[in-house]
Automatic annotation (TrEMBL):
Organism: Sedimentibacter saalensis
Spans traversing the lipid bilayer: none
Name of the protein described by the UniProt record: AraC family transcriptional regulator of adaptative response / methylphosphotriester-DNA alkyltransferase methyltransferase
UniProt-listed InterPro entries: Ada-like_dom_sf (IPR035451), Ada_DNA_repair_Zn-bd (IPR004026), Homeodomain-like_sf (IPR009057), HTH_AraC (IPR018060), HTH_AraC-typ_CS (IPR018062), Me-P-triester_DNA_alkyl-Trfase (IPR016220), Tscrpt_reg_AraC-type_HTH (IPR020449)
Entry GO MF terms: DNA-binding transcription factor activity; methyltransferase activity; sequence-specific DNA binding; zinc ion binding
Needed co-factor(s): Zn(2+)
Record keywords: Activator, DNA damage, DNA repair, DNA-binding, Metal-binding, Methyltransferase, Transcription, Transcription regulation, Transferase, Zinc
Family annotation (Pfam families): Ada_Zn_binding (PF02805), HTH_18 (PF12833)
Highest taxon of source: Bacteria
Boundaries of every HTH araC/xylS-type domain copy: 81-179
Keyword Coiled coil found: no
GO annotation, biological process: DNA alkylation repair; methylation
SMART domains xref list: HTH_ARAC
Amino acid sequence: MTNDEMWKAVSENDASYDGIFFYAVKSTGIYCRPSCKSKLPKQNNVCFFDAAEQALAAGFRPCKRCRSDISDYQPMKEITGKAKQLLDESFYKRCELNHKLQQLGISHHRMAELFKDEYGVTMSEYVGNLRLEEAKRLLLHTDDEIIEISCSVGFDGLSSFYRFFKKGTGISPAKYRKEHRK
């Protein structure tokens, strides 16, 4: 790969070159991945390395923004993983869930975008799926009243639970229990 090709990748923040080479900026003493979103340096201040170890050996330190010292740094993936874990643990506690999601330090709108990109469904759809699966499980494996099941999966009212359940399964909770219980 030529220096011109590498410079083009750096100037376009091309993530497909991450791990193939690293670039260092002589004026700052920092080395980065090609996808680093830091300010584009002057081309004459840049040198290229095949491996992070080479940049370190040449006296450059890793970038704190792109974490060029870590082989697989994906902070947004980590955040969406934490959000998914919170949804799994607290899907039935709406207020507590919203509070915990806010503590991740990212706006709700941005979290929704990242979650959809990572998992292919919105957070709302994901929570709905969790609620539906838990409701079905409770209907089949407990003798709890439907109103109790409704509350335990996060619904404030029975009518909203009935609408939700019927939309997800095509039948009412009582009919589901009757038809699927063994």
